[in-house]
Amino acid sequence: MLISIRSICRMVSCGVILLATCSASAFAQEKADEKITYDDHVKPIFREKCGSCHNTDKKTAGLDLMSYTAAMQGGGSGVVIEAGDSSASYLYDVVAHISEPYMPPNSEKLPNETLAILAKWIDGGALENSGSKPIARKKPKVSLSLTGAPTGRPEGDPPMPGPMLLEPVMTTTHRGAVTALATSPWAPLAAVAGQKQVLLYNTKTLELVGVLPFPEGTPHVLKFSRNGSLLLVAGGRGAYQGLVVLFDIKTGERITEIGDELDTVLAADISADQTLVALGGTSKIVKVYKIEDGQLLYEVKKHTEWIYALAFSPDNVLLASADRNGGLIVWEGINGREFLVLAGHGAAINGLSWRVDSNLLASCSEDTSIRLWEMENGSMVKNWGAHSGGCTSVEFALDGRIASCGRDRLTQLWNQDGAQIKAYDAFSDLALQVTFCDEANRIIAGDWTGTIRVWDAAEGTLVGELDSNPPRIADRITSATQAVEASKMQHATFVAAAEAAQTAANTIQTQLDAANKAVTDNQTLLDTAKAKVGEQQKAVETAAAAKAAADKAVADGEAELVTLNEALTKAKEAAANDANNADLAKAAEEAQKQVDAKTAAIVEAKKVVETAATDLKTAQDQLAVHQKEVETYTANVDTAQKQVVTLTESLKPAVEAAAAAKTAADTAAQAVTAAEAKLKHWQDALAFAEQAKVQASAAAVEANETADSSK
Amino acid sequence: MKSRLRLVSCIAWFCVLGSFVPHASNGFGQDQAAAPTPASIRVYPSEIKLNTSRDRQSFIVQAVFADGITQDATAQATVTLANAALVRQEGNMLYPVADGATELKIEYAGHSTTIPIVVEQAAVDRPISFRLDVMPVFMKSGCNMGSCHGAARGKDGFRLSLFGFDPEGDHFRLTRENSTRRINLALPNECLMVEKAAGKVPHTGGKRFEEGSEYYNTLIRWLEAGAPNDQGEVPKVVKVELYPENGVLDGEGSEQKLSVRATYADGTDRDVTSLAYFMTNNDNSAGVTQEGVVTAANRGEAFIMARFGTHTVGRQYIVLPKGLQFQFPETPENNYIDALVNAKLRKLRIAPSELCTDEAFLRRVYLDIVGVPPTVEEFDRFMAGAEPNKRDLLVDELLERKEFVEIWVMKWAELLQIREVPNRVSYKSAIRYYNWLQDKIANNVPLDKMVQELLASNGGTFANAATNYYQNETDTLKTAENVAQVFMGMRIQCAQCHNHPFDQWTMDDYYSFSAFFSQIGRKGGEDPRELIIFNSGGGEVTHPVGGRVMPPKFLGGDVPDVAGKDRRDVLVKWLASKDNPYFAKNLSNIVWAHFFGRGIIEPVDDVRVSNPAVNPELLEELGNKFTEYDYDFKKLVRDICTSRTYQLSTQSNESNASDEANFARAQLRRLRAEVLLDCISQVTLTKNKFPGLPLGARAVQIANGNTSTYFLTTFGRATRESVCSCEVKMEPNLSQALHLLNGETINQKMKQGNLIGLRLQEGKPWQDIMTEMYIAAFSRKPTEKEIAAINEILSSVDAAQHPQVLEDIFWAVLNSREFVFNH
After folding, report:
1. Burial of A176 (C-beta count, 10 Å sphere; 0-12/13-18/19+)
2. How far away is chain B from the Cα of A207, in angstroms, using its nearest Cα?
3. What is the DSSP letter of B366?
4. Hey, is A498 helix, strand or coil?
5. Are B482 and B440 in contact (CB under 8 A)?
6. Do B195 and A238 touch (CB under 8 A)?
7. How confident is the model at residue B628 (pLDDT cuts 50, 70, 90)?
8. pLDDT of A230 higher than 80
9. B648: DSSP letter
């Protein structure tokens, strides 16, 4: 009964298909409903819900659901999928909780939609893939192989990213721990693991030069190929998916994807000749794939713990693998034959690095040590405790120096004898990854908080930081615009300041000139006044002399008058006595005349004295005036001179300040230019990104059209 | 011919003898449920403090009916907040809104209660704490269980400390052991820890919680804060309360919501209902979900527990059939034991069985107190006795017999592991040790004095035999474990490696207690077999996590001053005293278990929060009495044996048929190996010879734990290799039955003693012989039916075969359950 209903359904859906061919789009849904296949619908369910146990490695209860063939083969309890009858399929019964043991264990029943897909798939004949394409879709061939391993610097310009998308896949609020770092051996280029992306930075300018999207999850491994032209990115989503992706450094193009793990890949490397990729992780198995077709070449199952590190030797001969237990084994790269077992580490090995001549392998471990192994007999040639608490990362520079970092938060540079060359500033938390940029002679390390620092290897000076969580271009443009505005405003401020400083200097100069002039003027006045004082003093002397002479004349006259009066008196007496004596009278008259004359002369003389006194006073007054003038002018000169000194002193700094302000203004002008350049850079980047988007959608449309026309 | 006959007769006899097995008698009628008006309501908690913005507190309303039945009325009660501006209510959960004090008024069925609420720091968001917030999620979600990441080597490459004893290490392993795998601060929702737990990617442990659940959000919030570790000391949980205090659930399917509140050292409290791990010790009666809802199932009693941090608290839940009507019968109470046992039975609605017959009592009390059945003369004398208190008199008489001492010397010898150990404990040492013990018990030395002398002993193992205790066990930690197990009834072994998952003991407690035994010096004596024990005055115990030196601390008690003192001296003065709340109760429980076949806490040496006493009041009172009696356990035995509870019949009634734990009836107990052998020997008139003992000595008297016979080993004699109460195996098994049927012991002893032959020679009629045999073996006379059946067999054969038939009957008697069991 059931079967007949089912066959009716099938007939109905067949009819639908016939209709669908007439109008494809209208019946797309029905068309999808018809073809439930292992590859397209069922495998993802198995992967998600059953893969942790029923996988190719574990095969719990002998059942492997990760490939169609194995799934159809069944497990320890026999065939689990009866094509065409879900109710008779053990697998369906246990997942649908029809019979015990309910699967997946310790979980809720699968959602009804999922169960419906499974039922439909089994009832529909358990197809492997869509009927129209019965043969497995082959991966396109990829040819990257080189003839032999490159031994030195490749010819021509070292591979650097061309114009590339700079828009980050995502920008998170917080940063995660630094999971991987790598530098190109031949170019100033560093790769930094971000969230679902890899960021490429120029190690000289520390500028972002590329973003490689990795939507599969977190990149755990970054490795440049030996010639620097490829970047291997390995990682994935924990307990869900792991793979290796190869990117072209110049174009940023995703070349191929390798591996299909059920947990994130923890270790990977690409062989020097670019033909093989090795990967490993929590499955404890090292898997080596051919890049050409993505097929598994061999597996090594000797490790007893999670694979933590893998490294192909630069000469393409050996592959070293290390695990969480301290196990370190070297294999023949091409076939996985065991070459050397390097016993010594007592705890998890976090990193491996070959010296460029392939004769020496460095390993670093949680047991704190870095060990160097030679490849003749596999003996340990050097062993030193590098980082207390554990060494987390190690890398050989091309010149044989060794960079390392560890749980002691330090990043260090060693020579091959284990002698420390340099230790760099400690991080604030565990240092996790280190890489050495040979081109820039810079050491780059990242820590648990997500900080990535770049130091000058020789000097130990901090050059700058790289951002594992860069902002979006739009944000960059916003901040660049703001920076431009800010720099312009600053520039304006500086210019104004320069002008003000110049004005201030000029004012001082003017004042100084005035002061100088005041000095000169006052000096002249002073000199004049001094001369006048001299003259006036002479005048005073002359006047004094004249007065003295006049005084003397008066005195002389009065003295003579006295004598004359006596003579008059005598003459008068004599005349009186001899009244007749005309001679006497005449003499008396004569004497009287003389007295009168004298008296008159005295009066005259006194007048002269008065005049002289007046003159003297005038002269003296004049002198006093001039003397005062001298004082005044002397004081003026003094003041002016002092002013000159002060102004001269202040003039120099003012001039300097003006010059400095000018320089600052010029610098600010340069800053404006730089900010504008940066803004333009990001605007260009945005334009590029948009163009790329347009091109991509155009390409998609074209592809669709091609596809449609080919139908 | 003989064996076939024997087989036939033995089947016949099993049929006859089988009839003594108790049958259920009529119980009590059931009426329909009474009017549903509660007598009172109880509201938990009694006061509510809400501190910081993320705090919350659930409340529970429980209605109590007149007959003790409880009902969850949380959803039905009317709840009013005095000031709704301070507190927000969602269901039975309260959230802070603004600082202040208010009240919550709860009304239900005419009753009303008010509980105060204080809100503090309502605007303050307490920063997330790894220990306070994140670790409980791992505990609740089972991440750090022993079968998952808590295993010693972790699971699938990731380890957490078992039940979270090492938060520092767990923080390291989560964040920095493998810095880039387990967490991702940039994308908290997509990191492995979260995706695995939420079942977004395959996880061997399956989905532990939903995306967006409280647990999920806690992890995310911690990651978004940068996965911080706690700075400085984090307040420890000092108290965990589980509400309601108890429940009596009416009928299958009734539910009771629980609320768990933790109080921290800084005085704050927190509703941890969602973080507590719920357990039941009997999900046949009451199950509990991880959301904290108890659901009643079958009639019975369950202890519902909640574990948070290192604290486990439990509450008693009784499940009754829907609408059960029950009247507790009028029963006399001989002493406090009966009063307390009946009090518990009243709660459970279980009626005790009837008093057992004099015959049953006689056999029971002889086997329990002196380890041999009464002789024919003793039987006749007791049965003829007419005194109303003849049972009490018999108990007093038996307590004065030396066999009583021997029984308890044997029991103590098991606890003290008295035995010879090649290359360590010489035979001489063991014998001297045994003699020391016998001397103490025989002289009725108070048990506290005996234990003090034992544990504080110094000197040579020959000169002062008590020091053998420290020769038997030389490992410091093991010694501490043994002392805790024997004298306090606690198995603290778990706490050696992690905090005890089902008890209060932490690793700190374990190593602090062990520190009392870290300064025991041992050196050889003159005799190479002798060891001299002394106080070395030096030596410390360090904590394995962090290597701290642990100061000696009493288990569950204080840190005493031990400077310059013998640490063991300090310990014993606390251990064997009333300061130690466990000592008297534990020893009382050991004594009790001897007479009832199971302890009030069972097993007796597994005292823990999650294995509660079925009757704590009784245990408490026994402990008090024991202390009052100055640790004279003879007086305790007298109380027990004269109680009505001890003298109950094994016949069950309807209400107690399914109950085995509450002493509502006497339990059938197989005789222990030594007693059984002594019984067989006494009944068959034979003698045993054990190494080091004279011919005719009883198996109970064997001093050396290494001495055994096939019979004793088969019936579970303790090897004394450990102090565990499980050393003595009491379970009946097939090889025991086969050994009795076909083995050498019974057959040979019957031949050797030739009881039937002797009596026939004496010319006794078969009826007399059978009566003697029945009294000797069963402490009763044969019934009419049995005599008739024997007569029938005898009359069906020749007289010449009569001895043979009588012997076969004797054999069947010795093989019967009535003989092998104490009842």
Report:
1. buried
2. 22
3. H
4. helix
5. no
6. yes
7. very high
8. yes
9. B
| Nearest CA distance, A106 vs chain B (angstrom) | 5
Cα–Cα distance for residue pair B420/B428, rounded to 1 Å: 8
Average pLDDT over residues A502-526: 89
Angle value at C-alpha B642, between B639 and B644, nearest 5 degrees: 110
In degrees and rounded to multiples of 5, residue B192 shows phi and psi of: -60, -45
The per-residue pLDDT for B16 is 39
| Binary contact (B186, A430; C-beta < 8 A) | no
For residue A237, which residues of chain B lie inside 8 Å, CB to CB? 190, 195, 201
Strands B277-280 and B255-257 turn out to be: unpaired
Q: Number of CB pairs < 8 Å for A and B?
A: 85
Q: Could you identify the residue written with the tokens 């805790």?
A: B484
Backbone angles phi, psi at B526, to 5 degrees: -65, -45
The neighbour count for residue B110, using CB atoms within 10 Å, is 8
Is the pTM here over 0.80, yes or no? no
B69-82 tens-digit pLDDT: 999 999 999 999 99
Tokens of residue A14, six digits: 């067949």
Is B383 buried (19+), middle (13-18) or exposed (0-12) by CB count in 10 A?
middle
pLDDT tens digits for B425-472?
999 999 999 999 999 999 999 999 999 999 999 999 999 999 999 999
Please answer whether residues A235 and A219 qualify as being in contact, where contact means their C-beta atoms are separated by less than 8 angstroms: yes
Q: Which of residues 164-183 of B touch A (CB under 8 A)?
A: 175-176, 179-181
Residues B203, A52: C-beta atoms closer than 8 Å: yes
Confidence of residue A34 (pLDDT cuts 50, 70, 90): low
User: pLDDT of B237-282, one tens digit each?
Assistant: 999 999 999 999 998 999 999 999 999 999 999 999 999 999 999 9
| CB contact B758 to A (< 8 Å) | no
Instruction: Please name the helix (run of DSSP H) or strand (run of DSSP E) that holds residue B656, with its range, or none.
Output: none
The complex's ipTM? Answer: 0.76
Q: How far apart are CA B719 and CA B713, in angstroms?
A: 8
**Span B31-60, pLDDT tens digits:** 344 457 899 999 999 999 999 999 999 999
Identify the band that residue A710 occupies on the pLDDT scale cut at 50, 70 and 90. low
- Residue B162 DSSP label: G
| Mean pLDDT (whole number) for A487-492 | 90
DSSP class of B231: P
Strand partners of residue B669? B822
Which pLDDT score is estimated for A570?
78
| B392 phi and psi angles, rounded to 5 deg | -65, -40
Cα B817 versus chain centre, distance: 27
Q: Can you read off the two tokens belonging to residue B359?
A: 């015959």
Partner residues linked to A672 by β-bridges = none
Does B210 lie at the interface with A, CB-CB under 8 angstroms?
no
Mean pLDDT of B110-118: 94
**The two structure tokens encoding residue A360:** 């020496």
Instruction: Output the CA angle A580-A586-A592, nearest 5 degrees.
Output: 125
Which residues of chain A have a Cβ shorter than 8 Å from any chain B Cβ?
48-53, 104-108, 172-179, 195, 217-218, 220, 237-240, 262, 264, 266, 282, 306, 324, 392, 407, 430, 432, 448, 450, 469
Q: Which two tokens stand for residue A438?
A: 């040979």
3-state secondary structure B726-782: HHCCCCCCHHHHHHHHHCHHHHHHHHHHCHHHHHHHCCCCHHHHHHHHHHHHHCCCC
Residues of A in contact with B195 (CB under 8 A): 237-240
pLDDT digits (tens, 9 = 90+) for B526-570: 999 999 999 999 999 999 988 999 999 999 889 999 999 999 999
Indicate the SS3 state at residue B41: strand
Task: For chain B, give the number of residues.
Answer: 823
**Which residues of B fall within a CB distance of 8 Å from A175?**
185-186
Q: How confident is the model at residue A7 (pLDDT cuts 50, 70, 90)?
A: very low
